[in-house]
């Protein structure tokens, strides 16, 4: 067994769902109690990060999901703060897992504020400019618009969250504070199109899916003002 | 007499408190420096790196990584560019990591300091990796001796020989973790075994004997911390979740007499108390180190 194979086998012994057999450990010269302790330490580190960043998500899915992540090869990112994200992604994408349908939404929402607060810094704002229908609109690097199937942000923890389409804008204000706002579906469509690089005119017409009536324009203008847009060329 | 520098690991829990004290000019002199895990401040914006930059104006920062995984594959290019970006904003006095591995493949990270196999190949590999890391950063590179709970691999050399070979082969500084040696002696593992050292005197004597003949002139600074007994696992675990243990404190004057007055870093990662409690712990460590 060369070095790479040995490290892989060691990690495999810690990550396996079932305790590795004695022969596999003997081939590594590793005591079963030592392998078990390292597995415990690995799980402890991961669970600590998830408990801190997404406690309600963890309560909903249970620590078994972490075992699933480990059995599938473990976290891909070197940053411990990414482990909860990877776990939420697993809850959303993996088939056949015994997790509530709303769990991934809950995890995404719990992590959204942290992600906004850790997003790259924005360049200093230039002088104020009018928005222009023929130009794009830039936002803070921190802005994300979550598309959720459950109203997890309005859930008090009793029963289950209401099943409905929710569009949630989460970002960091210029003062460094987190902000969260539910958007209507048309406004969310506009903001997503703007984030994808559309001009304001194209995005607004696409979002309204018809003539731009004054009420929609007013709603959109209010939302854009709160999201702190800046013109983009 | 040179006043010993005693520092604290910078905890997220204390970030606002420390910044407020920096702003108010009330950060205690007993905290000579802060140590950070660079991964916690890399690839992110917002208030956390801004707070670090403010703190770095008041105290030197030592950087001590967790994911370099010297026994495993080299990090992705983005890791180095992110690290360089951080160090451009906050130049550290030292940068280093552990003689361990946490990734067996470039994209699988277990976030734990796993022991290297006791093989010459693993030792040569870690030496190459440490040499490369040293060449990447301006700050002196430090290598920490790890705690571990068992040895594995072909037993071609022991952990002490492995450490010395990497320190000398890569020509890097030594981050001497005194607590790790105490934990290894209390568990009786590797070259601090084979049986657990039971009494305080036996632990201290065994660690002193282990250190004799090691390249103590390479020591850049010391780590001290607490550990805990995990009954289910029948081992002392290096949790950094308790006050610095008495054997570790007892060893400090002996170590400093041989290394010279190097800085001492107090680590605390679990059961983190309020900042003032850690400041008092730093004072306790200083008194012990000065033999008071």
Structure commentary:
The complex is a heterodimer of chains A (233) and B (292). Chain A is α+β, with helices and mostly antiparallel strands and 233 residues long. Chain A contains ten helices and five strands, in the order αααααααββββαααβ. In chain A, the strands form two sheets. A three-stranded antiparallel sheet of chain A has the order 2-3-4, sandwiched between helices. In chain A, strands 1-5 form a two-stranded antiparallel ribbon. In chain A, helix 1 packs across helix 3, helix 3 packs across helix 4 and helix 8 crosses helix 10. The longest helix of chain A is centred in the N-terminal third of the chain and has 22 residues. The N and C termini of chain A lie far apart (58 Å). Chain B is α/β, with parallel strands linked by helices and 292 residues long. In chain B, 39% of the residues lie in helices and 13% in strands. Chain B contains nine helices and ten strands. In chain B, the strands form two sheets. Chain B has an eight-stranded parallel β-barrel, surrounded by four helices. In chain B, strand 4, helix 4 and strand 5 form a beta-alpha-beta unit. The model of chain B has no long low-confidence stretch (mean pLDDT 97). The chains are: A alpha+beta (233), B alpha/beta (292). At the A-B interface, helix 1 and helix 3 of A face helix 2 and helix 4 of B.
């Amino acid at each position: 067994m060369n070095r790479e194979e040995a490290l892989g086998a060691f990690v495999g012994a810690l990550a396996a769902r079932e305790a590795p057999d004695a022969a596999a450990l003997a081939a590594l010269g590793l005591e079963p109690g030592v392998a078990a302790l390292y597995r415990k330490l690995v799980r402890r580190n991961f669970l600590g990060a998830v408990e801190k960043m997404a406690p309600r998500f963890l309560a909903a899915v249970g620590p078994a999901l972490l075992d699933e992540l480990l059995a599938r090869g473990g976290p891909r990112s070197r940053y411990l703060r990414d482990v909860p994200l990877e776990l939420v992604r697993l809850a959303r994408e993996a088939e056949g897992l015994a997790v509530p349908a709303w769990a991934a939404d809950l995890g995404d929402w719990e992590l959204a504020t942290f992600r906004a607060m850790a997003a790259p810094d924005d360049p200093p704002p230039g002088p104020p400019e009018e928005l222009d229908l023929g130009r794009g609109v830039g936002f803070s690097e921190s802005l994300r618009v979550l598309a959720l199937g459950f109203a997890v942000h309005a859930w008090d923890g009793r029963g289950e969250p209401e099943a409905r389409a929710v569009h949630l804008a989460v970002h960091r204000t210029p003062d460094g504070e987190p902000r969260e706002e539910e958007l209507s579906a048309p406004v969310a469509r506009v903001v997503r199109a703007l984030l994808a690089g559309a001009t304001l005119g194209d995005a607004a017409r696409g979002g309204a899916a018809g003539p731009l009536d004054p009420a929609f324009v007013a709603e959109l203008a209010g939302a854009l003002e709160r999201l702190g847009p800046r013109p983009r060329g | 007499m040179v006043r010993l520098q005693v520092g604290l690991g910078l905890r997220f829990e204390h970030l606002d408190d420390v910044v407020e004290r920096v702003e108010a000019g009330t950060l205690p002199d007993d905290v000579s420096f802060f140590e950070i895990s660079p991964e916690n401040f890399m690839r992110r914006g917002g208030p956390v790196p801004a707070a670090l930059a403010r703190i770095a104006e008041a105290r030197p920062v030592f950087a001590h990584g967790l994911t370099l995984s010297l026994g495993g594959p080299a990090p992705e290019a983005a890791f180095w560019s992110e690290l360089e970006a951080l160090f451009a904003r906050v130049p550290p006095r030292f940068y280093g990591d552990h003689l361990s591995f946490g990734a067996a493949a470039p994209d699988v990270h277990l976030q734990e300091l796993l022991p290297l196999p006791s093989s010459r190949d693993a030792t040569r590999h870690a030496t190459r990796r440490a040499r490369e890391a040293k060449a990447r950063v301006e700050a002196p590179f430090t290598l920490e001796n790890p705690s571990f709970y068992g040895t594995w691999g072909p037993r071609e050399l022991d952990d002490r020989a492995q450490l010395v070979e990497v320190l000398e082969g890569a020509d890097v500084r030594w981050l001497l973790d005194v607590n790790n040696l105490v934990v290894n002696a209390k568990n009786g593992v590797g070259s601090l075994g084979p049986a657990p050292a039971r009494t305080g005197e036996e632990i201290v004597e065994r660690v002193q004997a282990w250190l004799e003949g090691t390249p103590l002139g390479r020591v850049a600074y010391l780590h001290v911390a607490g550990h805990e007994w995990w009954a289910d696992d029948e081992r002392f675990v290096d949790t950094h979740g308790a006050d610095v243990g008495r054997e570790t404190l007892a060893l400090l004057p002996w170590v400093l007499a041989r290394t010279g007055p190097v800085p001492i870093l107090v680590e605390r990662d679990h059961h983190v108390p309020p900042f003032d409690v850690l400041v008092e712990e730093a004072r306790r460590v200083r008194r012990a180190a000065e033999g008071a």
